[in-house]
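User: Run a structure prediction on this.
Assistant: Running it now.
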Amino acid sequence: MNQILWVDDEIDLLQPYIIYLKDKGYEVLTASNGEDAIEAISRQRSDVSIVFLDENMPGMSGLETLQEIKRLRPEVPVVMITKSEEEHIMEQAIGGKIADYLIKPVNPSQILLCLKKHIHQHAIVSEQVQQNYRQEWSDITYLIDTASTIEEWQAIERMLTKWDIELSEVEAEQAGRSGMHSLIEDQRTQANAAFAKWISKNYESIVESRKSKVESGKSKVESMIMSPDVMKHAVFPLLDKGEKVLLCVIDNFRYDQWKIIQPLISEFYSIRTEEQYTSILPTATQYARNAIFSGLLPLQIQEMYPQYWVEEGDEESKNQYEKELVQTLLDRYRRRETFNYWKVNESDFCERVIHQLKGVQAPLNIVVLNFIDMLSHSRTESKIMRELANDESAYRSLTLSWFRHSPTHELLRRAAELGFTLVLTTDHGTTRVKNAVQIVADKNTNTNIRYKVGKALNCGSKNVMAIEQPKRVGLPCPNVSSSYMFCTGSDFFAYPNQFNYYAQYFRNTFQHGGISLEEMIIPLVTLEPKR
C-alpha cells in the first residue's frame, strides 16, 4: 500500500481529503508541524511514497522542513501546497527540489492526479508501453514473414529498436524484467533468421546488379545504399551545395546506439535526413570502411589500387590507407575539394581535433572514432566490462555515458558552432553472440569469429552462408580455392580444438563480421547546426 505523509498546521480541517484518499486505497500519515513531519519520515524511512507539505506553517517553515526531508529521503517526491504564488517562494521551493506544487484551495481531483503523476506514473507508462507493443507484435511478425525489400527490413529494424529501447526503459524504472523482454528477444531472433535467408538468397544478385549499374553510369542501385555508395549519396551532394561538411564515422555503431545518443546531439544539431544503409559483407572494418572511403567493393580496391589493399594474413593495419582511398575516390569523380582526415583513438587526440576545427578551410573533413570498437573489444576481454554491459540495454547505457562525458560530444558541439553540416554514420554494427558452431579450417584462416575466409572451410551448421565464388560478390580471393563463410543470427565460429573454452569465452560478447540486422542495417544521418 502506498503511504502518504501530509504535513499541515490545519491538518484537522483536511479530514475529508484524508477519508477520500483512504477510500482510494492509500494509507495517510499526518503531521501538524515540521518537527513531527521529520520524526515521521525518520520512523517510516522505507514506507513513505510521497509528502504533501504546507508551505506556510508556524515554527519550522515548509521550506525548512523540505530541506530536512530531502536530506533524509532525497528520493521521495515532495509536493508543496501554498496559498502564495509569490515568485521568490516558488523559486526557493523549486531550488529545494520539490516534485510539484499546488495552490490552495486544492480539490480531491488535483490530489489524485498528483499521486498518479508522481507515484503511479511508471506503472501507468509501463502498462501502456506493453499494451502498445502487444498490439503491434502481430504487425511486426507479419512484416518479418513477408519482407522482400531492403526498405521493409529497415522498417523492421526501426520497429524492433524502438520497442527494445522503450521496454528496456520501462524495466529499468521497475528494476526488473517483464515478460515483454523475452518476447522482443524472440521476435528479433525470428527477424534475424528471416533476414539471413533473404541475404543468402539475394546478396549475389544485389552486388551484381549494383556493379552493372555503376558500370553503366547510374549513380545507385534502385534505392539500396551500400557501403561504397555512402560518400556519393550523402557527402557529395552537400559539397555541391557549397556546404562545409564533417563526416563522422563511428566504428561499430549500431542503429540503437544512434537512437540513444540522438537527444544529446539534438541539443545543437537538427536532423535533416535520417536514413539507414546496408553494410557490405563481411561486416568488418577492413572491408566495409575501406569500401566507404574508396567508393569501391573490396575486390575493386585490390585490382585498381593493390598498394592500398592489405590481405587478411598480413600483419600490418588493415585500414592504414583510408586517407589515400578517399583521394582516389575524389580523383575518379574529378572532384577538386581538399579534405582533412583524422582517426581518433584517444581523448587527447580528439581534443586536438577540436582545437584544429576553428582554422579548417577544407570543405570536406573526415573523423573516424574508434571508441565504440574499443568498448566492444574491452567487453570481450574484461570481466568487469562484461558485467557492466551484460545485454543490449546495458551496452546502450555505456554508449550514452561515454558520449555524454567524452570529447566527442564537445567535438560535435564545436562543429555545430562553426557551421559544419554533420554526416554521422558507421562502417558496420555489432550483434551479441550466444551460440558457438564448430568450423574446420586450415592454419591460414582469419581470426574473426563471425566470418571466415580460407581454404577447405567445413562447418556442419545449416545457419551459415557460404560464398564459394567470392569474386561474384566483389570479394578478393587470397588463394584460388578460397571461400568465405558467414555466421548468421547469434552464432559464432569456434574450432574443435578447445571448443568448450572458446564457446564460453565469447558467449554473450558483441561481435561483427556476419549477417544480422544489427550488423548490416546501420545509421546514415545528415544534421544541420541549430541557429
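The longest strand covers residues 269-278.
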